[in-house]
Specification:
Elements lengths: L1 H6 L2 E8 L5 E8 L2 H10 L3 E7 L12 H16 L4 H10 L4 H15 L4 H6 L7 H13 L2 H55 L8 H37 L1 H13 L3 H22 L4 H11 L3 H15 L4 H8 L4 H13 L2 H56 L1
Antiparallel strand pairs: 1-2, 1-3
Length: about 400
């Protein structure tokens, strides 16, 4: 019910006077103007003007993982400074630029004011706060160290979002350039090549085989291009639809990507970094190892590593050491296994896991930068071959005619 209320609320800007007669103003989210007046009176504010915020020209936006990371850091900082939880939500919510995030935070603030625990308020929004996040907040509330645990949550979210950005950068750059190459090639085939074709018809001589092939390709794209676009678009849509619903397909895709040169190495390091970072965060919060491994599995971002960690969890639950369980999966680097072993023996598993995460996060940074440097000339060469090949094909008949003259 509370979740439904939060969804139907709207932002209101208000002005009024406090108990000392000072003018105050602010913004709050409520279901109606009457609810805003009642809320302000509870706070000792006499409302003078209440105006519903217009959303006609303002994009509703959406809540991104980066927004959640920033929110976690802001909340942790305010609680560490001694600001009460509800007031912290009010400050963070009213000061947020994203209307969707503002609505989410101020909606949760109302849940807190009604006596709901923070973990429960977060759990009402599973799209934005996963089990790992809620488990850490629950542990913080139970231990009376919510500010400390929120600081760990904030650090965890910042680190994981940073590594996700690196992975996206690694995959996006070559994909974007190849898309541009395809678009440029299509433009040449549809608009430029036909102009040369009409010119060549007046030559009255046989065209070179390469030129004839390019012209045939141009004619095919002009006549059947719509069908080709339909097939490619339908194939991509079907793949995306199937991927969301097929765990097997995602596993096959992840296995394939891990075996790819350069990119596979980066994805492997990223999965190990997320594994170590999540394990460190969960274990330092006092979450039992078996329970922590369940959350760690889902945080690796790779189905292959997720299955491996779940298998490790089952072995650890039967009394097996974590080091031995990691060795049995056969996918973790020996250095990681040895550092985890040292952490187990010394009782500092969280610290050693954090060191592993730091090392592999830095390694991913370096690998992505190196890959970008290596791929740049390769991509330029591919672009040159595609575009240059089409240009050469069109000028071959002219060169041939010049040689005859």
């Amino acid at each position: 019910m509370a979740n439904g209320v939060a969804i139907n609320q709207s932002p209101f800007n208000w002005e009024g006077t406090d108990n000392r007669g000072n003018k105050v103003r602010g913004k709050t989210v409520a279901s109606s103007e009457a609810a805003v007046r009642a809320e302000l009176r509870k706070q000792g504010v006499v409302p003078v003007r209440i105006r519903k915020e217009s959303t006609l020209f303002k994009s509703g936006g959406k809540v991104t993982p980066y927004d959640i990371a920033i929110f976690s850091r802001q909340l942790a900082t305010m609680l560490t400074a001694g600001i009460p939880l509800v007031q912290a939500f009010e400050i963070v919510g009213t000061g947020h630029d994203n209307p969707a995030m503002q609505k989410l935070i101020l909606g949760m603030k109302q849940d807190l004011e009604s006596g709901t625990a923070l973990a429960e308020a977060l759990a009402r929004h599973p799209l934005y706060f996963d089990d790992l996040y809620i488990n850490l907040v629950t542990a913080g509330e139970q231990a009376g160290a919510l500010d400390t645990l929120l600081d760990k949550v904030a650090t965890y979210k910042e680190k994981t979002e940073a590594i996700k950005k690196k992975i996206k950068k690694a995959l996006f750059y070559p994909a974007a350039v190849m898309v541009v190459a395809v678009i440029v090639t299509m433009i040449l085939l549809i608009f430029v090549i036909p102009q040369f074709e009409s010119l060549f018809k007046g030559f009255g001589a046989d065209l070179p085989a390469f030129t004839r092939m390019v012209i045939d390709l141009s004619e095919f794209v002009q006549s059947k291009g719509w069908l080709l676009a339909l097939v490619v678009g339908g194939g991509v849509a079907f793949y995306i639809y199937t991927r969301k619903r097929s765990h097997k397909l995602r596993e096959y895709e992840d296995r394939f990507l891990l075996k790819m040169p350069i990119i596979g190495n980066i994805l492997e390091k990223a999965a190990v970094a997320r594994f170590a970072r999540t394990l460190s965060t969960m274990f330092s919060a006092g979450v039992p190892l078996v329970e922590a491994l369940h959350s760690v599995a889902g945080a690796t971002g790779n189905v292959v590593y997720e299955k491996a960690v779940l298998a490790m969890r089952d072995e650890v639950a039967t009394g097996q050491r974590l080091q031995r369980a990691m060795e049995n999966t056969g996918i973790f680097p020996n250095m990681v296994i040895q550092m985890i072993a040292v952490g187990e023996e010394s009782g500092s598993l969280d610290e050693m896991s954090a060191k592993v995460a730091d090392f592999y996060e830095a390694d991913v940074d370096n690998a992505v930068d190196s890959m970008s440097s290596l791929l740049e000339p390769l991509i330029m060469a591919i672009l040159g071959v595609l575009v240059g090949g089409l240009v050469i094909a069109m000028y071959l008949p002219i060169f041939k005619m010049g040689a005859v003259i």
